[in-house]
Amino acid sequence: MVANPRAASAAGSARRLNSPQRALVETHVDGSPRSVNRQQVALVREEWRVVDRWWTEEPIDRRYFDVVLVSGENGVVFLDREAQCWFSQRA
Amino acid sequence: MRAALRERPALALRPAALGPAAGDESLLGPVTTAAEAAGVQPGMRLGEALSLCPDLALVEQDPATAEHEWEELLKRLEDSGFAVEAAAVGCVYFETRGIERLYGGLEPALKRALAAVGPAWDARIGAAERRFAALAAAHVARSGQVLIVSDRPRDFIAPLPLTLLPIDPQRREELEELGVRRLGQLAGLPGAAVAERLGPDGRRAWSLARGEQRGKVRARKVANELAETLEFPEAVANELTLRRAVGSLLDRLLAQPERGDRAVRKLALSAKLVGGGSWRRTVTLRDATADRDRLRVAVGVKLGELPAPVTRLGLELVELAQTVGRQLELVQPEGLELRAHLSEGLKQVRAGAGSGAVCSVLEVAPWSRIPERRALLVPRDD
Fold it and tell me: Residue A14 falls within a domain, yes or no?
């Protein structure tokens, strides 16, 4: 599960660096991204999975994609398989 | 125990006892009335208590909350005009001479003190010319009672047990084996013989039993309220991370204008532990200093004593030195000017973007496979 990155933090509280941001992703049949935030994906450079903390109440199961967009921009997006939502994040 | 009951008042009606601290002998602390009715006594072994009362709830020791509640109590007394000397958590001495006229006499002043303490602490007050007699009277008094020993304090303390004396339990047992069980019996012995048999501590105890030691009340200086805390999104056990967090807290504390360039004499490091308990250690410096690196080293040593991962870390400047002047250095340390420029730049950013806009990056778990768990952003308002 991904915690809400916009949750208010009290003064003196530390907050996470590089929290995932919601992303608008369209996918191919095999689940790989076709477009990210309405920009076409030119190339999927790498793909990997992170499964962790399955023993807790906040398990993590993510499918990451390192993509190059048609604009030439690099980006990393992942599908949170617990919440079935897409996020972008610097990996 | 009182502090714990304030947080969980339902426990007061159930059999409950203060559990032993981690690593200590498994002896119980104070117990509730319901536990006492079931045969559980303070100081009893944990196994014995649980066999007597299987429903016994163990309250985890929470020294940071207890100290916080105690500090609040002392402040309430000070707000009522009492100059207090805290002997330990749960025991405080104060003089009433200066404020008896304010409240219309000794007894009204003491009742005012009881009211300031409030009902939650089960307070009792003893008043006497001597400190020890006052302490003995407070032990004898019932909850919420004011007991004034107006004359002949020696006669008042004579029938009381030796347990009131601040002496080694072995020495007390030695005295009891000799048939001395009451303070009056000890006071009746020749002083030289007591000193020869029990040493300087015994001589002091003998003197207390005779009501001879006067001992002035030394009121504490008004406490500083310079404290900073840092909440972690998840429990942190890594010592390196905690050291960095301490550095960040120190930066914020040293930059507080209330410090007024004064050097630090004593600090307190506290933590909220992952299981719900708390932890607190104080560090007293031989030479008061405001040097960040020296303070960080002094406090950092204590981090090794943490018994569990922490979810909140707090740092408090407990005592500041009165001196502000320091001899100038002949050669300024390298990077001092650069740091001053950087600090000035950050102030400008903060003024433009608001409080909380400037943060430090604190690495928590750089090896983590989950990117957002590798580092934290810690606000810097220094």
Answer: no
Alpha-carbon distance values, B369 to A63, B57, B238 (Å): 12, 40, 16
Enumerate residues 6+ apart whose C-beta is below 8 A from B105.
none
pLDDT at B103 over 80: yes
Helical axes B169-177 vs B191-209, angle rounded to 10°: 120
Instruction: Supply the pLDDT for residue A8.
Output: 39
Query: How many independent structural domains does chain A possess?
Result: 1
Q: Quote the pLDDT of residue A6.
A: 40
Closest residue in chain A to residue B232, using alpha carbons only: A14
CB-based contact B372 A14, cutoff 8 Å: no
**Domains located in chain B, CATH noted:** 2-61 (3.40.1170.60), 62-221 (1.10.150.20), 226-328+335-379 (3.30.1490.100)
A11 in a domain, yes or no?
no
| Residue span of the structural domain in which A67 resides | 21-88
Name the residue among B232, B355, B361 with its Cβ closest to that of A17: B361
Q: What is the pLDDT of residues A11-70, one digit of tens each?
A: 467 888 889 999 999 999 999 999 999 999 999 999 999 998 888 888 999 999 999 999
Distance CA B266, CA B39 (A): 43
Does the beta-carbon distance from A52 to B228 stay under 8 Å?
no
Arithmetic mean of pLDDT, B129-156: 81
Rounded to two decimals, what is the model's pTM?
0.51
